[in-house]
Amino acid sequence: MTKGSSNNNSGSGSGSGSGSGNYQTTSSGTNDQGNHYCHRDYGTGASNSNSYHYSNSDGSYYYSNPNGSTYYNDGAGGSRYNSGK
Question: Does the model's pTM come out above 0.90?
Answer without folding.
Answer: no
